[in-house]
Amino acid sequence: MESLLDITLRSLWISGLASLVSFIAALALSFSLARARESVANVVAGFLESLVGVPTTVIGLLTYMLLYPRGPLAPLNLLYTPWAIVIGESLVALPVSAVVLYRSVRRSLSVVSELAASLGLTSGGLFGIVAREIIPDLFTSYLVGFSRAIGELGVALIAGGGIQGYTNVLTTAIALETSIGNYEDAISVGLVLISITALITLALKTMGERIWRSS
Amino acid sequence: MSKAVIVLVLLAAFLAGFAGGYLFSSASTPSGAQAPPTRVTVSTTTSLYQTHLLDDLLADFKNATGLSVEFSVLAKGSGEALRLLSDGSACLGFTHAPSLELKYLLNGSIVRLSIFAYNEFVIVGPKDDPAGVSNAASAVDAFKRIYEAGEKGLAKFVSRGDNSGTHVRELQLWKLAGLDPSGKAWYLVSGQGMAQTLLMADNLKAYTLTDVGTLQSLVSQGKISNLVVLLRDPKLLINVYSFYVSSSQSCRSKDVSNLALLLAEYLNTRGQQLIASKYKDLFNPALQNLTVVESAWVELSRLA
To answer: So what's the ipTM on this one?
Structure first.
C-alpha cells in the first residue's frame, strides 16, 4: 500500500474540488429556483431530492460511459485520471448541496423580500442580504456535498480505477485492501476517513457560525 | 454581500491549500522532475495483483528495457478486465478465463500475445470434510459430493458470483456434473473477490474453489483457520494466465502496439525466469510446457 498521507491528500483535493464545483452550481441553481414560479420550483426541488439517494455506483457508471473511448467525452482522455473522479463526484454532491441550499434560500427570501421591496432594493442587493442571512447554511451545503463526495466509492472505483500513486483515494484504498483480505489496513484507512470528515466538518461549521455572528 | 465573498474566498483558499500540498508533495518526488512518461492502462485479474507477480513483472520489464512508461494497474475480476479491454478503456490485460477470452477473441476486440504462466485451482473446505471431497475421483465428482451433502444440510458452498475466471470455472464444473445449485439455501453467492470469498468460506466452514496464489497469500498471513486443500485435479483445474492487447481504436497507436509487443517478448523470455525463480511455489512459467498449457486452454475455452 502506498503512503496513507499521499492517499489522504489526494482524497482531500479531489473531493474538495468536486464539492466546490457542485457548491457553486448549487448556489446558482438554488437562487434561480427561488426566483422561479413556485409550482416549477417545487417540481425541480422534488426531483433534486429524489436524486440525493442515487447509488454512487450508478453515477460512476454514467461517468464511465461519458469518458470511455466510445463515449461522447472520449477526446478529453480523462478516464482513469483524478479529473474523472472530480467530474463524477461533483455529480454525486450536487443534489444534496442544492437541496440544502434551496430550502434555506427560499425560507430566507420569503422573510426578507417584503422588507427589501419596501426599501426599494435591487435584486442584487436582495441576494446580498439573503446570502448574509444564510451563511451557516452555505457552509452546511458545502460540507454535506464534501462528505458525500469523499465518502463515495462508486465513481472513484469505476471512473478513477483506484490506481496506486495516481487515482487511489481513501475509499478505493479501503475497497482494494478489503478485496485482497487485508482487513487491518482497510480499517485503519477507514478510521482516517472518518476522523478527517469529522474534523473538517467541525472546523468549517465553527468558522461559518463565527462569520455569521460577526456580520 | 461582501461577507459572502469572504466566505467563498476562504473556502477557495482552504482548498487551494490542499491542492497545493498535494501538488508540492508529488512534485518533490524524483519522477516529477523528468519529462512525464506515457501512461498505459492495464487491467488485471486480482490474483496476479495480490501476489505482486504483476508488479514485479512490470517493474522488471521497465528495468530491462529502460522505457519510461507508467502502468496504471486496474485490479478487477477477469470478466470486468476483459470488458475494459474490449471497450478500449484499458489497452493491455492479464486474465485467466479461457471461455470468456474466447468470446472476445472471436469478436475481434482483443488479441492474445502470450500465455505466460499457469498454476491450478484447488477445492478447499473444512478439515472434517463432511462431503468427502478428499475421496473424490475428480473435480466433477467432488462437486457432485458437495451437492449431495448440501442437499442433506451437511455442507455449504460459497461462490464468487462475479464472472471472474474462478467463477467461470466453477460454473463449468457444475455444468460438467450436470447439476444446478443456483437458488439452493446451501449455495451462497458472495459477489466479491477471491480473498473475501475465502474468508467467508473459512468463517462459515464452507467449500469453495480458489486459485492457489490467493489461498497461499492468505494462509501465509495466518488468516485461514478452518479451510484445507481437499482436492487437486490437474486436468480440470489447470489455471492459465494470458496476456492480451485491446484492438480498440483507442489502443491502436504505434506506441501502444510497440509496447505490447515488447512486453509480450519480455514475458516469453526474461519474465519466464522471474516467474520460475521468485514465484516457484505460486506460478509455473508456461513456455516450458506450452503445448500442454495451450491445449488445456483450448479445451477450457470450449466449455461454455
So the answer is: 0.75
From B152, B149, B143, B120, select the one nearest B232 (Cα to Cα).
Answer: B120
| Minimal CA separation from B291 to chain A, in Å | 32
Residue B10 to residue A20, Cβ atoms within 8 A? no
Does position A1 have pLDDT exceeding 80, yes or no? no
Number of domains in chain B: 2
Does residue B149 lie in a domain region? yes
**Helix (H) / strand (E) containing B6:** helix B2-27
Confidence of residue B11 (pLDDT cuts 50, 70, 90): low
Angle ∠(B264,B297,B240) on CA atoms, nearest 5: 60
pTM of the model: 0.82
Nearest to A142 among B11, B198, B248 (CB): B11
Q: How far apart are CA B299 and CA B73, in angstroms?
A: 29
- Which positions in chain B have a beta carbon within 8 angstroms of at least one beta carbon in chain A? 1, 3-4, 6-7, 10-12, 14-15, 18-19, 21-22, 25, 39, 41, 46, 49-50, 72-75, 87-89, 192-193, 195-196, 198-199, 214, 217-218, 221, 223, 248-250
Query: Could you tell me the residue range of the domain that residue B53 belongs to?
Result: 37-119+238-302
State the average pLDDT over residues B258-274: 96
Chain-wide mean pLDDT for chain B? Answer: 88
Q: What is the pLDDT of residues A142-164, one digit of tens each?
A: 999 999 999 999 999 999 999 98
Domain boundary among B189, B207, B231: B231
Q: Which CATH number fits domain A4-214: 3.30.40.10, 3.40.50.2000, 2.170.130.30, 1.10.3720.10?
A: 1.10.3720.10
Of B231, B264, B281, which residue is a domain's last?
B231
Q: Does residue B109 sit in the same domain as residue B244?
A: yes
* The three three-digit cell numbers of residue B149, written as one number: 451433502
Interface contact B18-A12, CB threshold 8 A: yes
CB contact under 8 Å between B14 and A211, yes or no, is no
Q: What is the pLDDT of residue B33?
A: 41
The three-class DSSP label of residue B165 is helix
- Check whether residue B254 and residue B281 sit in a common domain: yes
Side chain identity at residue A156, one-letter code: A
CB contact residues (below 8 A), chain A span 58-117, against chain B: 64, 68-70, 74, 79-80
Give the closest residue to B251 by CA, choosing from B64, B62, B113: B113
**Which residues lie below 8 Å from residue A90, measured CB to CB, with a gap of 6+?**
A18, A19, A21, A22, A25, A149
| More confident site: A181 or B118 | B118
- The residue of chain A nearest to residue B190, with distances taken between CA atoms, is A179
Query: Grid coordinates representing B260?
Result: 505490447
Which CATH number goes with the domain that contains B128?
A: 3.40.190.10
For residues B114 and B124, membership in a common domain is answered with: no
In a domain? residue B29? no
